[in-house]
Known about the structure:
Elements: E1 9-10, E2 14-19, E3 22-32, E4 36-40, E5 51-58, E6 62-74, E7 77-82
Antiparallel strand pairs: 1-3, 2-3, 2-5, 3-4, 4-7, 5-6, 6-7
Amino acid sequence: MEHRWSMRQPGEGEVTICYLGQCFSACSILNISSDGMLIEIPGIPLPCGALVELTFDVPGMGARRLRGLVVHRAGQDAGVMFVDDGPVVPDMD
């Protein structure tokens, strides 16, 4: 059952994740919505509940820097819910 408020869109591009003073740039956006994103984070020790800063580009909207909360981990993927206000990507509903 889908629990999201907005539709996910396939992601492309990279995201830089900063956590506890360290920044990791070898991360790929797998999908994105107005509420969060799924990120491939190979080998990065990022626990559920971590508050992170994300920097990434949204096609047609430019660069974004937002805070997010890691809400789930599965293998090398992390689901991050945005905690800042403001649009990231338009809803496709």
